[in-house]
Amino acid sequence: MTAKRRRLKRRRMRVLVLLETGTKPPDDLDSLTEQERHDFKMETDVLTTLDALGHDVRVLEIKHELAPIKEALEEWKPHVVFNLIEGFFGLRELDQHVVSYLELLLVPYTGCNPRGLVLARDKALAKKVLTYHRVPVPKFDVVRAGRRAKRAKPLTFPMIVKSLTEEASVGIAQASVVWDDAELDARVKFIHDNIGGDALIEEFIDGREIYVGVMGNDRLTVLPPWEFVMTKKDDGTPLIASSRAKWDPRYQRQVGLKTGPAQLSRKSREKLTKASREIYRLLGMSGYARLDYRVTDDEEAYLLEANPNPQIAKDEDFALSAKYIGIDYAALIEQLMRFGMNYVPSRINC
To answer: How far is it between the farthest Cα atoms of the chain?
Structure first.
């Protein structure tokens, strides 16, 4: 065991891991299909790592009640809550209320603060804030649920249609890229009817898909840019980080999905690092986040989405980019807990 690992294991803490109902990994993972194991991998990696580090770990699954959280806190008095929920009452845009509840109870927690969640979860709101500060984002518009798509004049085809609030590429497929008004109308209706809520329509930026992880509260660490590539994609097919590309292992093999350090010029890397630090602060985020960019052939970077509390499985982009600069997975998990325990709400400013 390395000296660094011994230091990490020195303090044994009580860690309450907060999950949404149905996301706790079963004891017998070998009985699951490949897809099922894939669906549980973040929760599995975090729980097994916390256990290996010697912490006392309890899991609490919640769905639509806050009382069980308070009961667990009063009974067990954890040092920190490891927050892995991505929604509340089945709605992603309500997760900030759970975090607000933890803040009101003065309980340290991992991940982003409530204000950062509110600003980043609403993709249009985030883009408005960033546009005001002259951060490059795609031109966009919002089609409210139940309304027909009406394209604003600055928007030209091709465009991409997404859910306004969902993350993890929910509702995104090759069909999300639309080339005329008929396709636009059909895809907006698909989002309204099948995903629910409002639809975001934005200009499609042709280019490379690059992610940048950021973590910290006051002092920030910006991780190396990480690129999403399909090695078996047809030349004429737009590069789309669809739901299948992100979460379906069989489809990933079919398209030759690979991620790794982005090969960029020094100037472009420095520009992305500076922009990522600025965006993280402008949106009032804390803990950790992943920023998704499209980078054009002339290395102009457009912020597509800011994702607080992103996927942190051991083999996913955030953890891999941390490992690339020498932060192994156990050290990363410990660091995220330290950020949570050191977070001071009054010091997070937009």
So the answer is: 62
Query: Nearest 5°: phi and psi at 79?
Result: -70, -30
> What is the C-alpha separation between 335 and 99, in angstroms, rounded?
19
Lowest mean pLDDT among 61-65, 72-76, 85-89, 179-183: 85-89
Residue 1, Cβ density class (10 Å: 0-12 exposed, 13-18 middle, ≥19 buried): exposed
Using an 8 Å Cβ cutoff, are 82 and 16 in contact? yes
The pLDDT score that the predictor gives to residue 257 is 85
Provide mean pLDDT across the span 175-182: 92
Report the predicted TM-score, pTM, of the whole model to 2 decimal places.
0.91
- CA 108/CA 105 separation, integer angstroms: 9
119 Cβ contact list (under 8 Å, min separation 6)? 125, 126, 129, 283, 284, 285, 350
| pLDDT tens string 42-73 | 999 999 999 999 999 999 999 888 999 999 99
Residue 348 pLDDT = 55
Sequence-distant (6+) residues with CB within 8 A of 334 are 8, 53
Place of tokens 């008929």: 182
Give the chain's mean pLDDT.
90
Task: Quickly count: other Cβ atoms within 10 Å of residue 241's Cβ.
Answer: 18
Record the tokens describing residue 293, joined without a space.
């960019």
- Could you count the other beta carbons within 10 Å of the beta carbon of residue 254? 13
207 alpha carbon, distance to own chain's centre: 21
CA dist., res. 192 & res. 189, Å (int) = 5
User: What is the set of domains in the chain, with CATH numbers?
Assistant: 3-110 (3.40.50.20), 139-203 (3.30.1490), 206-347 (3.30.470.20)
**Given this model, what pLDDT does residue 347 score?**
60
Please classify residue 344 by burial: count the beta carbons closer than 10 Å to its beta carbon, then call 0-12 exposed, 13-18 middle and 19+ buried: exposed
Chain-centre distance for alpha carbon 225: 15
15 band by pLDDT with thresholds 50, 70 and 90: very high
Q: How many CB atoms lie within 10 A of CB 6?
A: 9
* Contacts within 8 Å (CB) and 24+ apart, 127-134: 127/303, 129/282, 129/283, 129/350, 130/279, 130/282, 130/283, 130/303, 133/278, 133/282
